[in-house]
Design a protein that fits this description.
Elements (H helix, E strand, L loop, with lengths): L3 H7 L17 E5 L11 H9 L2 E4 L2 H11 L8 E3 L5 H13 L3 E5 L11 H10 L4 E4 L4 H9 L6 E5 L5 H11 L5 E6 L4 H11 L4 E6 L7 E6 H5 L11 E5 L9 H12 L4 H12 L3 H13 L2
Parallel strand pairs: 1-4, 1-5, 2-3, 2-4, 6-7
Antiparallel strand pairs: 7-10, 8-9, 8-10
Helix pairs in contact: 4-5, 7-8, 10-11, 10-12, 11-12
């Protein structure tokens, strides 16, 4: 007799039935996470809210309208209000007025979770300060997807957003944050990934780095290697699409005493002992307290 489990395994997958609810929503601001690629990566609760909210707002109205069309959510005469970096100050009063009247307002960014490197931050802050209820609907987030795929430690991580676009500011940014004992997650323009990797390779060439692009989309790609290797990889100059960079936490820094003294003395030639110690600690990735004590000792030998 055929085992029951064998029969079940032989059955073809069946279409699951799900439904979108149209229950009356309590008043407040609803921050709705939307897919970063695959349109089906949206929760049923998100669809419920988009179906029932009194007012809809979006970073790009065309993106939200397309998402509604895909999932069969009707507008029923509702207008989608554009709310983004360039019109936030002008658009926010209308949304705040609706909240003050007790309306339910659903806000979606272009993709992913609102407020993560996103213009919804100011809206959420103002809504909370005005006494409106703020609801967050969890869902897709490219930063967390990249971290999950990276193979790097995920027990302690730090999201840094976009690095500065200018070279000097970017180098300072990387020197500061790569000294932190945490896995780092960055967004980056595909046109600047190569420059950021070059700067990173100059600071810490052996830092394990992951480049994740077009996550959950047709051309999803995850590239792993050291900063040095990826900076020399010709693919980095021609990347396309949305890019997330994930950097491993720093390895143990080993600096001999002669090297430490040379760096401290170089800085003390043009600045105070305290400032020299701070700069040397940052440059070498060492604890500030230890470097300061050594700097005081060297200053006393002069």
């Amino acid at each position: 007799m055929t085992d029951r489990n064998d029969r079940l395994d032989a059955e073809s997958p069946r279409r699951l039935t799900a439904h979108v609810e149209a229950a009356r929503l309590d008043g407040g601001l609803y921050l709705v996470a939307t897919p970063i690629g695959a349109a089906r990566d949206i929760t049923l609760r998100a669809l419920d809210v988009l179906n029932s909210a009194d007012m809809l707002a979006a970073e790009d109205t065309r993106v939200l309208r397309h998402l509604l069309d895909i999932h069969g959510i009707p507008l029923r005469g509702r207008r989608i209000l554009a709310y983004h970096d360039h019109n936030g100050d002008r658009a926010r009063p209308a949304l705040m007025a609706a909240l003050a009247d007790g309306a339910s307002v659903a806000y979606c960014s272009d993709a992913g979770t609102p407020l993560v490197a996103d213009p919804g931050y100011r809206l959420a802050v103002d809504a909370a300060e005005a006494g409106a209820r703020v609801h967050a609907l969890p869902g897709p987030s490219s930063s967390l997807v990249a971290l999950s795929l990276s193979g790097l430690p995920s027990d302690r991580f730090l999201f840094l957003g976009f690095p500065p676009s200018t070279a000097t500011a970017r180098q300072t940014f990387l020197k500061t944050w790569t000294a932190v004992d945490s896995t780092l997650i960055l967004f980056e323009s595909p046109r600047r990934v190569n420059r950021t990797l070059t700067d990173l390779a100059a600071i810490d060439p052996n830092r394990m780095t992951v480049i994740a692009r077009e996550l959950t989309k047709k051309f999803e790609e995850v590239i792993r290697g050291t900063a040095r290797d990826l900076a020399a990889d010709p693919r980095m100059a021609t990347l396309k699409g949305e890019v997330v960079m994930v950097l491993d936490r720093p390895g143990e820094t080993v600096v001999d005493e002669a090297q430490l003294d040379d760096v401290i003395q170089r800085h003390m030639a043009s600045m105070s002992v305290k400032d020299a110690a701070r700069e040397a600690a940052q440059e070498l990735g060492l604890p500030k307290r230890d470097v300061y004590q050594r700097a005081l000792a060297l200053a006393g030998q002069r």
